[in-house]
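The records we work with from here on pair a chain with its fold. Taken together, the tokens spell out the fold as the letters spell out the chain. To see the layout at work, look at the sequence and tokens printed below.
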Amino acid sequence: MAGEEVLTAPDGTPFPDGLTVERSGSRLTVRIDRPGGNLITLAICDSLTALLRTPLEGVHVLVLETGGDAFCLGRERTASTPEDLPLEVRRLIALNEAFLHTPLVTVARVHGDAAGFGVGLAALADVAVALRTARFGFPEVTMDLAPTIVLAWLARIVGRRQAFWLTATGEQVTAEEAVRLGLINEVAADDAALDAAVERRVQALQERSPRVHTEIRSMLRAASALTEEQAYDLSADRLVLGSLRRRMS
């Protein structure tokens, strides 16, 4: 895209191997490109967390995309001792939490298959568009593992029964089924249609207020943990504050 600026990490060092970050106005494009299915390394995990938690000034939308044939087939498992495991897990959870709490609107461009942690990258983004041929699944059960980090959020999106089935069997679902389940927003027929759909959604988002988007994301997050009555009480308070802020601006 014309006018894009290739960035370095906030401390001036290059981003980890396999990760590039470019800025074009209020849009940040983050690209993972690693052979073997774009498995997420802990270094890439940490960089993504930092970009989401402390975004550059003036950035509104972050687009996550990958190279190769797959979107992301999971993560590298590097912990070699029981002592290493808790730190590794905390870094993975930190990225999931960053998707929820970032002030940015996140858009995932899913051009190929997603598995395990890779499904999470798409599903936890605010918007996700996938190629029709993409498949989504949780293969951890084939390694005699329960994907507990995935299970922390999956049932809230697809429901308890579907979450159990997908993780208990490792069964893959099509992009169309992923839309029905709520894992993604839209399916595109080919690469050109995928690019057009992502651009259309990014432009629509950029036309609106980043502050309002932050309020929407915050309300959705808060309401998910409340009863219906509590959610209405909170929505009333926030609507009054938002209306007063609008009148004063």
